[in-house]
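Hi all, long-time lurker, first post. I run a small reading group and we've been trying to get comfortable going from sequence to structure in the token notation. Rather than ask abstract questions, I figured I'd post a concrete chain and ask someone more experienced to write out its structure so we can walk through it together at our next meeting. Sequence below, copied exactly:
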Amino acid sequence: MSVTSAADTDALRGRLVAQALDEGFVSCRICRPDAVPDVPERLQAFVDAGYHGQMAWMADRMAWRGDPAALWPEARSVIMLAESYTPEYDPTEVLNHPDKAGVSVYAQGRDYHDIVKKRLKRVARWLVAQEPCEVKVFVDTAPVPEKALGQAAGLGWQGKHTNLLSRDWGNWAFLGAIFTTLDFTPDTAEVDHCGSCRSCLTACPTNAFPAPYQLDARRCISYL
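-- Answer (accepted) --
Happy to help. Here is the structure in token form:
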């Protein structure tokens, strides 16, 4: 199949979403590489405050991390995917037992970089087989602002804890991105639904949030 019209693109897009869900992703949405113009300013403020700690690569690669379009200028669309790792038990139950240690849910399974990347590659290979194009896949190991792109694509919104949050699958999801030279119609960005809720901020045992929507990585157990 060759994409020659908007109708063809929409048809391919629908099959792409179905393929992503078949691979195990819980959501698949699309945005433009330049859909996050506020990221450079937010990233600069994060680094200027020293919140990145010893993660020097965040400062060194700000030009790319702040502008996904600069990472690969040929890309026309960013396919954002979410893979749920919601546990079958209530992970907050351990908080009722201060004599026990709680281990973050994401750290209890296999390395998500390997799992998500393999699935991303399968989806990307499928896409290339449907319509000749160029693709690049990213899972947290390149200067890509996945959470901001996820919100721009409509996967969810960045909550006060700075992670992506969805009304469909909460915030228990890993994010992956497929950059492609195909020109898909972008989805509508998600809006903030946090309201006055502060549950994520008060739950943090190390007070790693100086203010809503701000994370000081130096105080975060995951960083340590």
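A couple of things your group might point at:
Residues 6 and 17 are 16 Å apart (CA to CA).
The chain has a mean pLDDT of 92.
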